[in-house]
Amino acid sequence: MKKLHILALAIAAALASTFAVAQTATPATGVRAAPRIDANGDGVIDRAEAAKAPRLAAKFDQLDVNKDGKLTASERPQRAHGKRGGGRGGDRMQALDSDKDGRISRTEANAGNAGFAARFSEMDANKDGYLDRTDRELRMSRERAAFFTGADANRDGKLSRDEYAVEQGARGAERREQFAQRVEAAGKTPKARRVPTEAEQLQRAGKAFDRMDANKDGTVTRAEFDAAKPMHGGKGTHPRKR
């Protein structure tokens, strides 16, 4: 952990000079932003809002599992990396879902990869005996809360640019170390991976911070942090293990 703290301090020191002036991104000329379907921002999509997306409207009744006239996050179709199904991870989950009910039971998990089965209890965030989108969203929410708390070094309820970069840098280093340990434990030879340079890490952290800092006051509140969901709420927002 001493190495991680040294890395964190180095990142903070470099960041103070590298990002003295905040940069804001502006949309490219001629590029139109995608319309927001959830117009009132209440977290659900009603039939009127769905009408703005013909494909979604056509499947509204099918997706509305509880027939309440609204589509919650767990009912809406999700996309990851520009493809349906969540990429390779989504494909693996679908393969395990033998009865095609949209969730993974412990029996289905046990029939798959041994490592996945061993992590079942940890992944089952709501402890209902199944793995589905609700568990993933709950885990992400908890991880984001832990990240914010860990990053808020002075406990003032908001993140400075340095605080965010320190937590981000330490998290990235730990994730690489944990990956190497898992590969070694499995008796495999780790593939050569390019580690981002310190400058690249600082640049990425700075861009993410600027996206979150909605009012451009140089700090990120918890509300701004949750609203922006940097890096899809997954990468870049995992808490450090202390």
UniProtKB/TrEMBL annotation:
<feature type="signal peptide">
    <location>
        <begin position="1"/>
        <end position="22"/>
    </location>
</feature>
<dbReference type="InterPro" id="IPR018247">
    <property type="entry name" value="EF_Hand_1_Ca_BS"/>
</dbReference>
<feature type="compositionally biased region" description="Basic and acidic residues">
    <location>
        <begin position="97"/>
        <end position="106"/>
    </location>
</feature>
<feature type="domain" description="EF-hand">
    <location>
        <begin position="200"/>
        <end position="235"/>
    </location>
</feature>
<feature type="region of interest" description="Disordered">
    <location>
        <begin position="170"/>
        <end position="242"/>
    </location>
</feature>
<feature type="compositionally biased region" description="Basic and acidic residues">
    <location>
        <begin position="207"/>
        <end position="216"/>
    </location>
</feature>
<protein>
    <recommendedName>
        <fullName>EF-hand domain-containing protein</fullName>
    </recommendedName>
</protein>
<dbReference type="GO" id="GO:0005509">
    <property type="term" value="F:calcium ion binding"/>
</dbReference>
<feature type="region of interest" description="Disordered">
    <location>
        <begin position="67"/>
        <end position="109"/>
    </location>
</feature>
<dbReference type="InterPro" id="IPR011992">
    <property type="entry name" value="EF-hand-dom_pair"/>
</dbReference>
<keyword id="KW-0732">Signal</keyword>
<dbReference type="InterPro" id="IPR002048">
    <property type="entry name" value="EF_hand_dom"/>
</dbReference>
<dbReference type="Pfam" id="PF13202">
    <property type="entry name" value="EF-hand_5"/>
</dbReference>
